[in-house]
Amino acid sequence: MKRILTLVLLIAGLASGAWAQSATAKGNTGDKGFEIAKNLEIFANVYKNLHTNYVDDVDPGKTMKVAIDAMLASMDPYTNYFAESDMEDVKMQVLGQYGGIGSLIHQDGGNIYIAEPYQGLPADKAGLKIGDRIVAVNGESTEGKSNSDVSSAMRGQAGTQVTLRLERDGKQFDATITRAEIRLPNVPYYGMVDGNIGYVRLDEFTQDAAKHVREAFVKLKREHPGMKGFILDLRGNGGGLMGEAVDIVNIWVKQNQLVVETKGKVASRNLKSRTRMTPEDLDIPLAVLINGQSASASEIVSGSLQDLDRAVIIGSRSYGKGLVQNILNLPYNSQMKVTVSKYFIPSGRCIQALDYKHRDENGRPLAVPDSLKTAFSTLNGRTVYDGFGIEPDIEVEHPTSSLLAVALYNRFHFFNYAMKFSREHESIPSPSQFTITDEIYQDFINYLSDKTYEYTTYTENFINDLRKVAEEENYMDNLKQQIDQLEKTYKDAKQQDLVRNREEISGLLKDAILLHYYYRSGCIEAALTQDPDVKKAIEILSSPAEYSRILNK
After folding, report:
1. Which of 282, 273, 341, 268 is nearest to 301 (CA)?
2. Which of 48, 302, 334, 336 is deepest in the core (most CB within 10 A)?
3. Residue 105: C-alpha distances to residues 86, 150, 384 (Å)
4. CA 453 to centroid of chain Cα atoms
5. Helix residue ranges per DSSP H, 357-437
6. Which region, left, alpha or beta, applies to residue 146 given φ > 0 means left and ψ of -120 to 50 means alpha?
């Protein structure tokens, strides 16, 4: 062990000298090279002393990973280290695929349940159902295990088998499933809305995302020759491969058009990405839906189409991630993902919203102040700004989720009632026809009668604060009767929350039930009829004059 530690110090010394020589060779004054050399040597000695003198045994791999993760955390959230054991996670992020059974799981208390078996994948083919409790994986009990522990145990190389002990309706049974290369669908749904408007939902910019969006568009256009407009839904899409974003823009933009440019420290990595194929349609009116979870590649697509005045952007402001990462190989089959540049869309703006180089006293990155935001122009001369994501051309307000709905969701009452409902109903109408009737809603209220789902409203907090202040200022003797009456009136009103919030609760209940019968695509199809962003998109795409006015104002 002493020889190994001496070797570590020797390597650190050689690395220090190499850094110093590199810095001098690049014309650096030597200050940075010396600082790097000094701190590498200090780090090696810290680890040596820790390993030699610490009271308990030190796990080298674990200790080093903690050190590396802490170092990278001071950069930005997207610069990460992946040990060899994390390669499945890397594959999942980049390609949208992994070796496993194809099912989402969730944890409720100390139990792990099947949350959603993906249609047509091994878990679904093996007959797993939403709500099956996972008792054991390959004979090892899930008791005391976290969601991520169980998920990792279920994943593995395609072609290998995993045996799950499951519990359904109080009875336990085993299911042996052959793992497959699971590739999540980046386009979970596409179809027509309002008769003559096409729609496609894109969840991720993984490999072949552009191919699947193009295929969906071409098919809808061929099957519906009267299609008057098209909606690309990027809400909740956190991004992915930049090349896929460029190719998606290419579907509706001419060949050789600049879509995005990257600029970073290493000049050889700077890149201008242009469209490279023949477009499918240069004229059809387009609407792109975004929200606060639309990031990175989603912002390249929506931002470039906005800069080129090729689409109306609808929804709410996007996330604001204008940073580009590369994956670099490291020794021993490990890798690191490094932020290497920023991207700039056709108008010349960068939409990065947070400055990770400058932080507040709590270590949080600073937002770009309004005074430093720069105005840019779209192709038609419309003014757009950098520094805070993509601002939609048409902003749509959405009602805030009620505290009641959040409480019911967090306690899995929608999930559990939907399981009960599916056991009692062999089939239901199609997604577009199914509704939460008075009878179903009342049954849900009855189901909740012996369940807990406490939530504290702002009014409740206000009454509690009023009582506290009245006591502190000695007004309670005069105000107690009025405050007590106010509290009683409020509690009576709160009991009607299930009635007042019926529309919102029914929507979430409908989504949970549809998942049992029609998978995720059915949920998306049903939600479109009541979606305020989709309704606004249909309204604009159905009015050529309004569409033109927005893109030329």
Report:
1. 273
2. 302
3. 19, 9, 42
4. 26
5. 403-410, 413-424
6. beta
- Chain centre distance of CA 495: 35
Could you give the C-alpha distances from 32 to 40, 41, 407, in angstroms and in order?
12, 14, 53
d(CA 470, CA 455): 24
Give the SS3 label for residue 137: strand
Kindly tell me the sign of the dihedral angle through the C-alpha atoms of 201, 388, 247, 184. negative
Torsion of CA 183, 189, 190, 193, to 10 degrees: -170
Nearest Cα neighbor of 297 from 266, 269, 322, 274 is 322
| 263: its two tokens | 């600029």
pLDDT, residue 465, reads 94
What length is written for the chain? 553
Q: Which two tokens stand for residue 268?
A: 């050889």
Per-residue pLDDT band at 183 (split at 50, 70, 90): confident
pLDDT at 95: 58
- What type of residue sits at position 8? V
Sequence-ordered list of residues with C-beta below 8 angstroms from that of 537, at least 6 positions apart, any chain = 197, 229, 231, 287, 289, 312, 314
Q: Read out DSSP for 157-176?
A: -TT-EEEEEEEETTEEEEEE
Write out pLDDT tens, residues 423-478: 999 999 999 999 999 999 999 999 999 999 999 999 999 999 999 999 999 999 99
β-strands 375-377, 383-385 pairing: antiparallel
Average pLDDT over residues 271-291: 97
Strands 197-201 vs 229-233: parallel, antiparallel or unpaired: parallel
**83-132 per-position pLDDT tens digit:** 877 766 666 665 556 889 999 999 998 899 999 999 999 999 999 999 99
For residue 108 the two structure tokens come to 């409720």
Q: What is the DSSP letter of 30?
A: S
Q: Which residue has the tokens 């005045």?
A: 309
DSSP string, 257-292: -EEEEEEESSGGG-EEEE--S--S-SSS-EEEEE-T
Is the Cβ–Cβ distance between 116 and 105 less than 8 Å?
no
C-alpha distance from residue 108 to each of 153, 163, 296 (Å): 18, 22, 32
Hey, is 55 helix, strand or coil? coil
- The tokens describing 114, both together, are 């099947």
Helices and strands of the chain, counted as H and E runs: 18, 23
Nearest to 103, CA basis, from 155, 140, 64: 155
- Kindly write down the DSSP assignment for every residue of 84-132, as one continuous string: GGGHHHHHHHHHSEEEE--EEEEEETTEEEEEEEPTTSHHHHTT--TT-
Q: Answer for the pair 258, 220: CB distance below 8 angstroms, yes or no.
A: no
User: What type of residue is 396?
Assistant: V
Q: Is the dihedral of CA 450, 453, 459, 462 positive or negative?
A: positive
Give the pLDDT confidence score for residue 29 in this predicted structure: 45
- Cβ atoms of 200 and 232 closer than 8 Å: yes
Beta bridge partners, 468, equal none
